[in-house]
Amino acid sequence: MRGEKVSVGLLEGPMVFQSVVLKLFMSLLFFSSTITTAIATLPKQQELDRISALPGQPPVTFSQFSGYVTVNEQHGRALFYWLTEATSFPEKKPLVLWLNGGPGASSVAYGASEEIGPFRINSTGSSLYLNEYSWNREANLLFLESPAGVGFSYTNTSSNLKDSGDKRTAEDALVFLISWMSRFPQYKHREFYIAGESYAGHYVPQLAEKIVEYNKALLQPAFNFKGFIVGNPSFDNYYDKIGIITYRWSHSMISDKIYQYILKECNFKEVNESSVCAGAQTYVERYELGFVDQYSIYTTPCVTLINDTWNPPRLKNTLLHRRVSGYDPCTVHYAEKYYNLPEVQKAMHANVNGILHNWTAFSDGIHNNWTDSEFSMLPTYKKLFATGLRIWVFSGDTDSVVPVISTRLALNHLNLTVKTKWYPWYADDQVGGRTEVYDQLTFATVRGAGHEVPKSQPKRALILFKSFLAGKELPKS
Predict the structure, then answer these.
(1) pLDDT of residue 216
(2) Please, which of 92, 266, 299, 449 could form a disulfide with 396 given CB 3.0 to 4.6 Å?
(3) So which residues are the catalytic ones?
(4) What is the total count of domains within the chain?
């Protein structure tokens, strides 16, 4: 799988072209046969994946399904998904695939459990409560843990944990979607969107390109793909890094001296940083930033003890603030308790082979061994503009890791045509952020939001999502 290319637009030569056409034809035959088989066994297959109820879950009216889809039989790679259908009229609502980034971040831990999913986890790590601003009010949400080795997704080939990268992640995600649609054929012709954040700024447009190419190669499109939306996305390695250092300086997080030194010593156009540049950034982390949540610079960071107890006396004021404001910076720790409970894994049909001894929200092994990463996503965006897809990019304006400045610098080099000039958009008579609409895409900021926009500003994020699905500009008043 890893060495194969199915993109006819990227290949040259008649022999190669004939080979690709043959592969696509065989893929079409396989897809058609699996659809026929899936329809015949549809009730059984879907019922096997149905979640009757999660431990400690409040009553809900919507259906849930979760389980595994094998994306490579030879290597034993299987991706874990969790579908939470819309709270009302799910048959009339679109399907939205959510991807967290990292690389290495679990979509179950982050997207589903502290951002856009229907449930939040209590601080005990043993029960759930409802998310008032869940995106499944507007759509059927499909959370995917990708690539294999992240969250509950797994591989039987240990070397796969050290050779993951952009290319194979996109290929496996496409295979997942093809197989998943066979298992859930009622979604095949449904309006389909992709959403994500952070390093999913790579995953989302790369998968979008794969879907567009796959649809183009078939006699009848396999996906009713309409567009995508990404938040605080990794866009371009150069502009991302320039934006980080500029954002931190402009928000008084670092000194004038270190700012000028880094601009002088760091060549961000190079893939690998010099030792001098790396040393300067290490100095910033250790001595200038201080104890602050770099992903949300104005909120209280989570303080944990080495023995994993989270309620020391010195944190009483912090905990009180969480209860009053509704924002809790420690939710990922609750997730690591909850999803390691045997009864939770059984209910979700997760870890069925027992190879995960400790489920984690973030896979350091995947992150530290990433093999290929596109230096810039700008060329991919330019290709996708020609497809007519609905494309939205948004940024929480208190994130210093993939800051709004980085995104704006990258967008400025796409030569976009302004359709509706910059204006403040509103939520509850307050400025929710700012936006500018172009012919090719919509850009929006979310005021007071960090890296995980739906976590820190859930209501504003839901308004943004509703506007995206409706294809309407954000409210001016």
Answers:
(1) 94
(2) 449
(3) 198, 399, 451
(4) 2
